[in-house]
Design a protein that fits this description.
The chain is an alpha/beta fold and 262 residues long. The chain is 38% helix and 26% strand.
């Protein structure tokens, strides 16, 4: 995407030339990606292509070794060494960013000792500083949105995987973020539970929420996304509208991947 195009759109996420290594192993190579406000961008690709690492860089669970990152109008100020490598970050800025970006993980990551409602209200209480009454009102609202109002007092161990993931989505929504990140949100679910979670995510897309989604659900990605990004070995091999990527891909590797998962 050229600079003129970037300036003509309101970007919720703008990542430029990101690089990430784990030791001597390169994971991301000069990756640039942007997400326009109220758009859905799906990242697809084979296992090990760097999809989850890229997403974790977006909420600074991982610090990219090189590159620039702006999220929710906040340019991330990396501390750099003499060689230009990112070596640190202002923790206050990370705290501010976490109020703007929420992430839904593969494995739910619910606190087992807290009830469903307790899981949903914990971050609004601690990060946003809401009163308990305000946090409960917000939490109940979002549990109703994901169809789990009747489970507010249950504990995660008594829920199905699909229900646990819907609680995780309600928890993310309760932060009322500008950007929602989903890291393969259905990969840990039994097949019969996948659709209930996809239904919730599809409903959020229909509301015009800004989302960055890593998924192996190709038909779903095609249905809900404004843009598809195909990663291969840490490179953006293909990017464009769902029609462009699924029907007119220029990359041989992208066409091979789509054929293998069709």
């Amino acid at each position: 995407m050229n600079n003129t195009t970037r300036q003509n759109k309101t970007l919720a996420v703008d990542a430029r030339h990101l690089q990430k290594h784990y030791g001597e192993v390169p994971v991301l190579h000069d990756v640039s990606l942007s997400v326009t406000d109220r758009h859905v961008v799906s990242i697809i690709g084979s296992s090990g292509s760097g999809k989850s690492t890229l997403l974790r860089c977006m909420n600074l669970l991982e610090i990219p070794d090189r590159g620039e990152l702006t999220i929710a109008n906040e340019a991330i100020r990396f501390q750099r060494n003499a060689q230009g490598d990112n070596v640190g970050i202002d923790r206050r800025q990370v705290h501010k960013l976490r109020s703007q970006v929420s992430m839904v993980f593969q494995q739910f990551n619910l606190w087992p000792h807290l009830s469903v409602l307790g899981n949903v209200i914990e971050a609004p209480l601690r990060v946003h500083g809401l009163s308990r009454r305000e946090a409960i009102e917000r939490g109940e609202h979002y549990l109703a949105k994901v169809g789990l109002a009747d489970k507010r007092n249950a504990f995660p161990s008594f829920l199905s995987g699909g229900q646990q993931q819907r609680v995780a989505i309600a928890r993310a929504l309760a932060m009322e973020p500008r950007v929602l990140l989903f890291d393969e949100p259905t990969s840990a679910l039994d097949p019969e539970l996948v659709n209930e979670v996809l239904g919730v995510i599809g409903g959020l897309a229909g509301e015009g929420r800004t989302m960055l989604l890593v998924t192996h659900e190709m038909s779903f990605a095609r249905e809900v996304s404004n843009e598809i990004v195909f990663l291969h070995q840490g490179h953006v091999e293909e990017a464009g509208s769902p029609q462009q990527v699924f029907e007119q891909a220029r990359s041989d590797r992208c066409r091979q991947f789509l054929s293998s998962v069709a």
